[in-house]
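Quick start: read one record
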Amino acid sequence: MAHTVPSPHDLVLVTGATGFIVRHLLRRLTADGWRIRVLARATSNIAYAQACGAEIVLGNLDDDQFLATAFSGVSVLVHLA
């Protein structure tokens, strides 16, 4: 089986989307053409992620059903939570 390297235009899932580091990461991913999905709690300030055009998925990391949905179609995970 050939290994394929993810590339821009693939979907990247980012946790910890309201942190300082993530703001810089989202800016870079957006500039490089990645499609972005962000995991966030319902109480999180997601304005910056929305401004970057990220798809927002609200839920908790301890919910298996939520995680299964969040990971659907994802090529890369960046876990910063």
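Residues 30 and 42 are 23 Å apart (CA to CA).
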